[in-house]
Amino acid sequence: MRLDKLLSNLGYSSRSQCREMIKKGRVQVDGAVCRDIAMHVKDDARIELDGKEIDTRTRRHLMLYKPSGILTAAEDKNQKTVMDILPGMYTSLGCMPVGRLDKDTTGLLLLTTDGDLAHRLISPRHHVDKVYFARVDGEMTEEDERAFSDGIELKDFTAMPAKLEKIENTLYRVTVQEGKYHQVKRMFGARGRKVLALHRFSFGSLVLDKDMQPGDYRELTEKETAALYEAAGKAHE
Domain total for the chain? Predict the structure, then answer.
């Protein structure tokens, strides 16, 4: 990638301003001052700005605690999206949500710059569990639990077998391996119950950080990232 584009994508300034920084000798590549704005740098190049090394990783993976009232979308002209919560650097690097949480659903949202990883994680073929807590408008029965386990027939498709577990009163834990539009809500609806609140607790091995609050985000640890790649059956890059 060109040096000026890389710096701009990483959020250090606009493309034109990054060019000026390079021309003024403020940038070093592998220990040497570089004034060539068109220089193509390798992925493992060591880059410094004003004597301080910068993080040049273009492959990023994030955990976001999605608040209610925010769309899971790259952009929207009228409403706030999850990308509006994040620094512009992540959008510039092509970081996108993995799957979708409804506007009023809260909890763990994974974002990545690796499109193939995202596709694998949401594909039912890879059997990656997504765990939700659902508050509904009444108690479910053992028959409902069996229906979830057998796979509930909806209008346009039959949901894969899911696990329904009672936590307390009208609070339930639901484990699915799909992520179709409004799926969890529709599954409850097919059994005569309305979902009053829905929260995603985990995605595969990734569990929502207990120290995070709605709107918080952080990059995944190396261990968390490696586990997701393993679950997706993809070599960790």
Answer: 3
Tokens 């974002």, residue? Answer: 111
Task: Examine residue 236 and state whether it is found in any structural domain, yes or no.
Answer: no
What's the number of CA atoms in the CB half-sphere (13 Å) around residue 82? 33
Q: Give this prediction's pTM.
A: 0.86
Whole-angstrom distance, CA of residue 133 vs CA of residue 184:
10
Q: Which two tokens mark 111?
A: 């974002």
Q: List, for residues 197-220, the tens digit of each pLDDT value.
A: 999 999 999 999 999 999 999 999
Amino acid at 112: T
Looking at the structure, do residues 109 and 153 belong to the same domain, yes or no?
no
pLDDT in tens, 43-99: 788 999 999 998 888 899 999 999 999 999 988 999 999 999 999 889 888 999 999
Catalytic positions: 102
Together in a domain, 105 and 209: yes
Q: 16 lies in which domain range?
A: 3-53
**Sequence-distant (≥ 6) Cβ neighbours of residue 106 within 8 angstroms:** 65, 66, 67, 68, 197, 198, 199, 200, 214
CA angle 173, 177, 180 (to 5 degrees): 100
